[in-house]
Amino acid sequence: MSDAPHILTLKIDDQDVSAVEGQTILAVARENGIAVPTLCFLKGLSPVGACRLCLVEIKGVPKLLPACVTRAAEGMEVTTDSPRLREYRRTILELLFAERNHVCSICVSNNNCELQSLARAQGLTHVRVPYRHPRLGVDATHSRFSADHNRCILCARCVRVCDEIEGAHTWDIMGRGIDCRVITDMNQPWGQSDTCTSCGKCVHVCPTGTLTEKGVAAAEMKKRQQFLPYLTAMREERE
User: Which among 13, 24, 94, 121 counts the fewest CB atoms within 10 Å?
Assistant: First the structure.
């Protein structure tokens, strides 16, 4: 009996592409040089479909589906860029900016921020909804790192890398809706965490200026994510 993978054929943006059974639309698109915007997705971490920026249209399906968790299927016809999708993505980005307090000019991740880069790529020049201006704090109790909740977009990358790669599960999410917050150790100050290993992985997978290293000034914080595919591959080999 052959163990050869089952190969599928489908169309993405009118381009004929092939996929291995089980691959997501996002993976197939990226393999074929088709750009699909994402924020919560990061190669090496489990996909959660939280940010909804990778929504795509599929012929015959009335609703939009997230490419990062939707499996490719034989004969599927996918559209990754359309006026409808651009409007959805712009609206999502506007809501992210309006929900917290993103002041890019004084952020340590200015010009090194995935949220900012996506906004530029999507042509976002202003926000059409009212800003909430929530009163959120900064946790600087850790000796090496700080967490600015004003800039968090709840992508849960920190939660997943701490759980899936470091194995500490220091981070989690508390609350519902607009009251959600990332927390450490049952909502204890980060510096008092009994589980944090101070590895810094959460800091470097964070797409914004939420988790940063102390001692950096505006626009100086550059995230290093090259470690993630390597560590994931090593883990899979051990398993």
Answer: 121
* pLDDT tens readout for residues 62-102: 999 999 999 999 999 999 999 999 999 999 999 999 999 99
Mapping DSSP onto H, E and C, the string for 97-138 reads: HHHCCCCHHHCCCCCCCHHHHHHHHCCCCCCCCCCCCCCCCE
pLDDT tens-digit readout, 144-190: 999 999 999 999 999 999 999 999 999 999 999 889 999 999 999 99
Whether 180 is in a domain gets the answer yes
List the one residue out of 65, 62, 73, 69 whose CA is nearest residue 20. 73
- Euclidean distance between CA atoms 182 and 138, whole angstroms: 12
Burial class for 172, CB neighbours closer than 10 Å (0-12, 13-18, 19+): middle
Query: What is the count of structural domains for the chain?
Result: 2
Domain encompassing residue 28: 7-81
Same domain, 65 and 117: no
Calculate what percentage of the chain has a pLDDT beyond 70: 94
Do 180 and 233 share a domain, yes or no?
A: yes
- Do residues 52 and 121 both lie within one domain? no
One domain for residues 65 and 136: no
CB 101 within 8 A of CB 133: yes
Q: How far, in whole angstroms, is CA 227 from its chain's centroid?
A: 16
